[in-house]
Design goal:
Order of helices and strands: HEEEHHHHHEEHHEEH
Low-confidence stretches: 279-299
Mean pLDDT: 86
Number of domains: 1
Distance between the termini: 62 Å
Shape: globular
Structural class: mainly alpha
Number of strands: 7
Length: 299
């Protein structure tokens, strides 16, 4: 049988045969997706907590804010995914609505519910909202990078069918996320992973460069939204309107709101600087702590 270019392409395609369930203990299953989110949260805390401490927010206060925000983000991300994916199926299977460990999160939902939760929790403990947002900007992309490994194993984020040598084919019959086990798809989850890692690198390198607290978060939100707008062209999601998918429209709306909101906040901060205070009664000098760029995240 002659060897063709098509045969070579099929040999180069990356085959993923992992079971989305890492291990089973009777009725309890540990999913790769859930495990990688736990690892991602731990990694995010490793860099975010020291950042918050160096800017005057104690670890205890940070944790008092973190837990309610985490719950809000998980609920918001899952509900937004349910609404925008297959709402009818979930209405028929309500026990799966909050099964985040199975895969399926829409991150903008986490943002929409997480932001008010952070604001309320920060006000309750007397911590600076913009500084906590900056710490969150370091936490999110690093945690997401690990989470995307779970997506890659799951196959719940895929691109269009592809014969490129970097395409992925999911061969495990227990994988119920991919449309087909005999078709290879563009590895959209891997593209997201690389983007998250690069975004974290950019933010980490700039974490001590900004005068106005909250700028790091605004930069993360803007770059993340731009990234989602571009990356979703490669994802096999349904088109909402005018050739764009729902996440792309959401990204455009977020950018349209976030940019003027940050400009207004910067004007407010500069105005309040003359009085020696910033948002929430936090002293201006506490919001401008100078940190050595050589400081490691664990110290």
């Amino acid at each position: 049988m002659p060897f063709s270019t098509a045969n070579l392409a099929s040999l180069l395609i990356i085959k993923i045969g992992l079971d989305p369930v890492l291990v089973r203990f009777g009725p309890v299953s540990v999913h790769w997706y859930g495990l990688m989110y736990v690892v991602g949260i731990a990694a995010g805390l490793y860099v975010a907590l020291p950042y918050a401490e160096r800017h005057g927010i104690s670890r205890d206060r940070a944790y008092e804010v973190f837990w309610p925000v985490l719950v809000a983000c998980l609920v918001g991300g899952r509900l937004y995914y349910v609404v925008q994916s297959n709402l009818g199926w979930y209405l028929r299977h309500p026990q799966n609505v909050l099964a985040t460990w199975e895969g399926g999160m829409a991150f903008y939902g986490a943002v929409f519910l997480g932001l008010p939760a952070l604001y309320l929790a920060a006000r309750r403990v007397g911590a600076s909202v913009p500084l906590l947002l900056d710490a969150t900007a370091l936490f999110i992309p690093l945690a997401q990078a690990f989470g995307r490994i779970g997506n890659l194993v799951n196959g719940d984020i895929v691109g269009y069918p592809s014969s490129a040598p970097w395409a992925t084919q999911y061969t495990n019959p227990n994988n119920t996320f991919v449309p087909s086990h005999v078709v290879a798809y563009a590895p959209a989850a891997f593209f997201e992973l690389v983007f998250s890692a690069l975004l974290f690198g950019v933010l980490w390198s700039l974490k001590d460069r900004f005068r106005v607290p909250g700028t790091l978060f605004a930069l993360w939100l803007g770059l993340y939204s731009l990234g989602q707008f571009v990356l979703f062209f490669a994802r096999a999601n349904s088109v909402a309107a005018f050739g764009l998918k729902q996440a792309q429209w959401t990204a455009l709306v977020v950018l349209a709101v976030a940019i003027p909101a940050w400009l207004l906040w910067r004007q407010y901060f500069d105005r309040e600087s003359d009085a020696g205070q910033v948002e929430g009664g936090t002293a201006l000098d506490e919001s401008r702590v100078t940190v050595s760029p050589s400081a490691s995240p664990g110290h």
